């Protein structure tokens, strides 16, 4: 969701890659649904690991900032970037997976996470530069 939101809010202003500790998870259908509500298409997105990103040629030293959304990703980002001059920030964002028992409560948890991410991006990077849709 974070990569999709960043691209939606800021377009080509910055190069962004969504990376995690593991790459063995499909994008959650609830994440796809709540992003679709605001005009972000995630259905072709897939998760990548730090190692996979480097194998594909995205050298961590070419980035200015890593925003970690979990303590595990923060630890791995700090370890992988200790020799590079880039910032690592930790944002304690709600992990909506496993929350709620009904479809609507699960969607609401994912909406809350989506909205936290959006607010964090705007706080960090300023007003959106792309045209927004509801």
Features:
134 residues, mainly alpha, 42% helix
Q: What is the fold's blueprint, element by element?
A:
Blueprint: H1 2-10, H2 29-36, H3 50-55, E1 65-68, H4 71-80, E2 87-90, H5 103-125
Parallel strand pairs: 1-2
Helix pairs in contact: 1-5, 2-5
Structure description:
- It is globular and about 45 Å long.
- Strand 1, helix 4 (71-80) and strand 2 form a beta-alpha-beta unit.
- Strands 1-2 form a two-stranded parallel ribbon.
- The protein is built from five helices and two strands; from the N terminus they run H-H-H-E-H-E-H.
- The longest helix has 23 residues, at 103-125.
- It is 42% helix and 6% strand.
- The chain has helices at 2-10, 29-36, 50-55, 71-80, 103-125, and strands at residues 65-68, 87-90.
- With 134 residues, it is mainly alpha-helical.
Which structural class best describes the helix and strand composition? mainly alpha
Task: Provide the gyration radius in Å.
Answer: 15 Å
> Main sheet, how many strands, which sense, barrel?
2 strands, parallel
Q: Name the poorly predicted regions.
A: none
- The strands making up the biggest β-sheet line up spatially as 1-2
Percent strand equals 5-15%
The first-to-last residue Cα distance is: 16 Å
Instruction: List the total number of helices.
Output: 5
Q: What is the general shape?
A: globular
Oligomer: single chain
